[in-house]
Amino acid sequence: xxxxxxxxxxxxxxxxxxxxxxxxxxxxxxxxxxxxxxxxxxxxxxxxxxxxxxxxxxxxxxxxxxxxxxxxxxxxxxxxxxxxxxxxxxxxxxxxxxxxxxxxxxxxxxxxxxxxxxxxxxxxxxxxxxxxxxxxxxxxxxxxxxxxxxxxxxxxxxxxxxxxxxxxxxxxxxxxxxxxxxxxxxxxxxxxxxxxxxxxxxxxxxxxxxxxxxxxxxxxxxxxxxxxxxxxxxxxxxxxxxxxxxxxxxxxxxxxxxxxxxxxxxxxxxxxxxxxxxxxxxxxxxxxxxxxxxxxxxxxxxxxxxxxxxxxxxxxxxxxxxxxxxxxxxxxxxxxxxxxxxxxxxxxxxxxxxxxxxxxxxxxxxxxxxxxxxxxxxxxxxxxxxxxxxxxxxxxxxxxxxxxxxxxxxxxxxxxxxxxxxxxxxxxxxxxxxxxxxxxxxxxxxxxxxxxxxxxxxxxxxxxxxxxxxxxxxxxxxxxxxxxxxxxxxxxxxxxxxxxxxxxxxxxxxxxxxxxxxxxxxxxxxxxxxxxxxxxxxxxxxxxxxxxxxxxxxxxxxxxxxxxxxxxxxxxxxxxxxxxxxxxxxxxxxxxxxxxxxxxxxxxxxxxxxxxxxxxxxxxxxxxxxxxxxxxxxxxxxxxxxxxxxxxxxxxxxxxxxxxxxxxxxxxxxxxxxxxxxxxxxxxxxxxxxxxxxxxxxxxxxxxxxxxxxxxxxxxxxxxxxxxxxxxxxxxxxxxxxxxxxxxxxxxxxxxxxxxxxxxxxxx
Length: 764
Known about the structure:
By secondary structure, the protein is an alpha+beta fold. The protein contains 15 helices and 35 strands. Strands 28-27-26-25-24-23-35-34-33-32-31-30-29 form a 13-stranded antiparallel beta sheet, sandwiched between helices. Strands 3, 4, 5, 6, 7 and 8 form a six-stranded antiparallel beta sheet that branches. Helix 2 runs antiparallel to helix 3, helix 3 (about 100-115) packs antiparallel against helix 4 and helix 8 (about 350-355) runs parallel beside helix 9.
């Protein structure tokens, strides 16, 4: 171990983990759906949650199966198979399904699912189905208290199926099993090499050292673990075997594990370790497993006059955002910063926006998430203020990023994006090549399916899926160097930073021109003459008059100067449950708060508009000012009179037809706001109320199409308003339920700009 290495027992130390995540969180939005004020709740709250999900790109490696379930009748087998097949059919970003005939896959495998007589057999069929795609971030998470991943699919009949990739299936650790021994393993020449033994960890105290080979665990030969990986290619067999070994090392704190190593002279060394509690803060998002988030930092002296900061963290989770920000703040005066992502499986990708912003003074693109319906740009958010709101410049010194073959997903996106724009140099081994955004859906039998819904493309057009990020400076894994106490990737990064300082070399120029924020709304309608109106249809004015009357008349809103909505936000398939509130005051002040708080999660977002400045504080990307289309939409929804479609807010409104919407006959109205945003609203022919909308949600990541269903209208002090909003977007449902509405209780001070936003408005 290096003399300046943080102690393993210190807060934030890293330990070997195989539980990797992969679901999909999404984060922010300033969406705008047609009925404006009335829809402010679901527009802002729900779409931000969707971004949390879409942004989750963690990756988990497959684990060995638990004991087969007892044979039983499976009446839900066909429904479970159909649901899994349909989810991928609706949400996979490639309508050609990576060259796989998806309908033929259903025809071939559905009879096998129907014939399944055990839960294990059904899961095997589901695994076989998703692996036909040959991509990462697909797999089945079994239901039950242990949530252990299933075994590799057996030889279910296949027709020239591509070699499957290991799925990003995570395993949840029951609290009783949250213990480990403090070593990290990597595969090396088909053997298990100790790449790191944390100082003061149980394994270190028992004598294990970097460079040793782990040969047996509780008498189980290491090489036998690869036997359960038949059906995979060589690389993925090794990854499965690696994950299986790491799983064997975990267990309840205080439990013992018998280990047999080969030391530096290849002598057998038997030791017994008592597992210690897993270091880090337990955190959980939705149905994803529990993760233990850890960060460590150190100040390295590279020479008498050169210093560098070192930051290691084990997963991209919101619970680490504040600690990462603080670590960067503490290192602003260093000559360089090293970010160690070796063994980091990924996580919430919106954190990449905030992390990269510490090193960039403009909104550079780090790549794009391409879904079937949208292209979402992952753009750095310049971090120009600290947590207290004081102005700070982005760190301008050299940045080194360390990666290896166990760096997945968000780690690959951050390292590859920073490399592509020339802002960082990457050291180590090529990454895993598993960089698809994914989410988790619950199936009828209670199991959960991880599935990718998008692709990721770097700023220079590179796809990292299947390729990985290739280091600028490759440092092959060498056992002899580990045995001698060296960390080649870290030492190469240190040498590079020292050379930059010694030769006064400025950071490499950015290779990609930053994308400018749009100044015109691409949703603006073309300047064409309106078509002749169908005389059998009512006019927009007539439809709106009926709608206003049904809601209680304009006087129901005119007598109030503020509104305070409170409610819940749910993504039932993914297990997300949160609270939301919207505060609004005349003439155009607006604030929304969203929180997901539980024993293992405290995630909050705030967005506001004070009549002049639109802003957002996101827990992962940091504080930001709204600009362009995002600001225009926030201005639209902040207007207190927007509920009843005040004419001054629109360029045009016209009834274009009558059709069914969610089974109800509705008048279809096309509206274009003053800012150019277009939407289609459906007014119930019978009641006059808005049944739903179709529009593109303009967000800080891009434009996303969404359908919103409004229902469960309730009257509050004479004002009739929907209390249930269901957004259908990119194949997912987000449900917002309004539980209360208070009038005229909002103090004006609530709209005051937070210190971080005030800091962003200060002149540099």
